[in-house]
Design brief:
Blueprint lengths: L5 H12 L3 H17 L6 H9 L15 H6 L6 E2 L12 E2 L3 H12 L1 H16 L3 H19 L4 H9 L5 H25 L7 H17 L1 H12 L8 H8 L5 H4 L5 H22 L6 H20 L8 H31 L2 E6 L3 E6 L13 H10 L1 H7 L2 H24 L10 H16 L1 H11 L2
Parallel strand pairs: 1-2
Antiparallel strand pairs: 3-4
């Protein structure tokens, strides 16, 4: 069974459709262990690919058995993306495709003796679960490659060997990545240890390391900043490292250097969040909690960047951010307005004259609700409720507050009207449908207690 034919792959895919996520996780662990052992009779790569492409939701805590190759690329993992990912990859990304070929060139052509020396040691450590030891040995292997690249003629030999890779961007960047990771390993470890903000002492150490690396290779200096960004809780704090490494630097100056990629990457992160706002504003279905988290991330990122001294008052990065912020605020305001219009159109209210009461507003409860108009209302109402704390940072607090008041006023009118007619024998056959639906919307906006209270008061 050294290869899987298309027919066999189809059979595997059919079996995986009936497999639970827990069983799929056990299969991944088993296949990875077999791969590390080097068993040739089982096509582990094809089987792992089949599991990944099955669409199964694997548990977050998945026992992984990484091999030598996975551990080698591990420091760069957060940079790997698929080029055709939704919204496009972030600037500075590394293409995941072609990694296998790059690894084979390193192991078979560029450093076969070194690989033969380390491979059995690392395999034994992985199989007995000594992952810290395995990672230390792999780090030594990477360090030896950096030392090799310092030898005369080695850089040109690597360039020729890796030129055959179809994904040339990664192979061209590999020497710079290895150098940056080698020189900054302690600093990156300190960065990972920080729960939120980067202390000044860590920023100063990273800035000094950046100056040292930049003196050797501008490409490696950029790779260092990209590597550090992947470990920052607040990625825009990478700008502080750039400021510390070069006194008086601004986004105007950085935009003329290789560090423009850093600004582009941060801008693209904000644009990814804005893309979610765009889709929701166009009327697409959305999860309210996911959208709220996107608003929080967007506000933190944009305002965090705008507060950094690197950004000049009229600098290109500041202007781009302000444009993104304005566009995002417009989309979020549109989502808020849609909540109001959906509630008012889906729960129509008429002004009627009642004897002894004059003009009063009453819901059109004698007509059936058209639920297809109201499908998106719970998500919109929950969004209005939960986004309150983050609306100001994203630039739409006034629109959010105005929409929340308008929706609340309309729901109060509908609620009071349904309660007022609960004992009216002429209330119509659709009163119960209205009560049931409005209870859902009250819960989305005000919470479960308010919804249950309304149900009791509106019961006939």
């Amino acid at each position: 069974m050294s290869q899987l034919t298309p027919e066999k792959l189809a059979e595997v895919a059919a079996l995986l459709e009936k497999t639970s996520p827990q069983m799929a996780a056990r299969l991944v662990t088993m296949f990875e262990r077999v791969k590390v052992k080097g068993t040739q009779a089982i096509p582990t790569e094809a089987l792992l690919t089949a599991v990944r492409e099955s669409g199964l939701g694997l548990p977050a805590r998945l026992e992984r058995v990484p091999g030598f190759d996975r551990l080698f690329f591990e420091p760069f993992e957060h940079l790997f993306e698929v080029p055709d990912a939704e919204g496009g990859p972030l600037p500075g990304y590394l293409p995941r495709a072609g990694l296998k070929q790059v690894w084979e060139i390193i192991a078979d052509e560029l450093a076969p003796d070194l690989y033969a020396r380390y491979e059995p040691v690392i395999k034994a450590a992985v199989l007995r679960g000594a992952m810290d030891n395995a990672r230390n040995r792999v780090a030594e292997f990477r360090d030896r490659l950096v030392a090799m690249l310092d030898q005369p003629g080695e850089a040109a030999r690597w360039s020729r060997a890796l030129a055959v890779c179809p994904e040339g961007a990664f192979s061209r960047r590999l020497p710079a990545l290895l150098l940056a990771e080698h020189l900054a390993r302690p600093d990156i470890a300190n960065t990972r240890a920080q729960p939120r903000d980067l202390p000044d002492v860590v920023v100063a150490a990273l800035a000094e390391t950046l100056r040292i690396i930049e003196a050797r290779s501008a490409d490696a200096a950029l790779e260092l900043v990209l590597l550090v960004m992947g470990h920052l809780h607040k990625p825009w704090q990478a700008l502080r490292i750039l400021a510390g490494a070069s006194k008086g630097v601004t986004d105007r100056k950085l935009a003329l250097t290789e560090f423009q990629t850093v600004g582009d990457r941060l801008m693209a992160m904000a644009a990814r969040e804005k893309a979610l706002f765009d889709a929701a504003a166009r009327g697409g279905a959305f999860g309210s909690s996911a959208l709220v988290r996107a608003v929080e991330r967007f506000g933190d990122l944009v305002n965090g960047m705008l507060r950094e001294q690197v950004l000049d008052r009229d600098g290109p990065w500041r202007k781009a951010l302000q444009s993104l912020q304005a566009g995002a605020a417009a989309r979020l305001e549109a989502i808020c307005q849609r909540a109001v219009s959906t509630a008012e159109q889906g729960l129509p209210v008429d002004r009627i004259r009642l004897k002894g009461a004059g003009l009063v507003d009453r819901p059109r409860h004698k007509a059936p609700l058209r639920m297809e108009r109201l499908d998106a209302l719970p998500a919109h109402l929950t969004f209005l409720r939960d986004v309150r704390l983050y609306a100001s940072a994203a630039g739409f607090a006034a629109a959010r507050d105005q929409a929340a008041r308008a929706v609340q006023l309309h729901l109060d009118t509908v609620r009071d009207g349904l309660i007022a007619v609960r004992a009216d024998p002429d209330r119509g056959p659709h009163h119960g449908q209205w009560v049931q639906a409005v209870s859902i919307y009250i819960e989305a906006l005000e919470g479960e207690d308010s919804a249950r209270l309304f149900e009791r008061r509106a019961a006939a």
